[in-house]
Amino acid sequence: MNRISFFLLSIISFFSISATAQSAEMADTMRSEGKIYVVVAILLVIFAGLIGYLVLLDRKVTRIEKKIAEKE
Question: Does the model's pTM come out above 0.90?
Answer without folding.
Answer: no
